[in-house]
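haha ok so turns out i had the wrong file open the whole time. this is the CORRECT one, sorry everyone. sequence first:
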Amino acid sequence: MRSPFAYPANVFTKTAKHYDAVYSDKDYQGESEILASLIRERVPNAKTLLDVACGTGRHLEHLARQFDCTGIDLDDEMLAMARERIPAVTLHNGDMRDFTLDDRFDVVACLFSSIGYTKTVENMNRASSNMASHVLPGGILVIEPWITPESWIVGKTGSSTVETDEFIVTRMTVAEPVERGRVVFEYMIGDSNGIHRVSETHEMGWFTHDEYILAFKRAGLIAGFVQPGLTGRGLYIGQKS
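then structure:
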């Protein structure tokens, strides 16, 4: 995506059923194909993949066609939606800082900038180390970062509107002036029950390039950065020797 983590366990509680609609323009299939290609370049015989903060399972839906996949997330509602979408994939509830699985994987991936929810460098280091501990020798850890410090613009706003057969959602965002970034989401949701407003505050944190590289090195990985990655934010890829 979420326990004694740096943000509420169910940050999307009020909007979980609208989540996939809000991100309906996101190319999960294309991103999954790019990721699979990057994996094959580095771990040609990769068979197993763990998606950390898997959300509603949109990446796993495509990755499971090429790998034996497992997912983990801290949001129970997101996991429930994922189980409906990909019933053959094993899914777990867990915090990326300290989850423990019996299995180890050729690939552990944390996508869609979910690492930003760790908020602090300490938590990001803990999460990176924990995820790396679930990587098999020769395997890789892939983390898609959140925005860079340089691109954080206090007061920046954005908006989007999506319409489905069941509801219409307009979402507005604003970047708040806190040390490493906080985003407020305001929703206007219209459905058969009327129109109502929902507000969410996403406590997040941006990290520098050097902070990511150091976290990977501390986790015992040979670290690198690949651009443009899946969405233009690049990918940090660390290989376990």
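The chain has six helices and eleven strands.
again sry for the mixup
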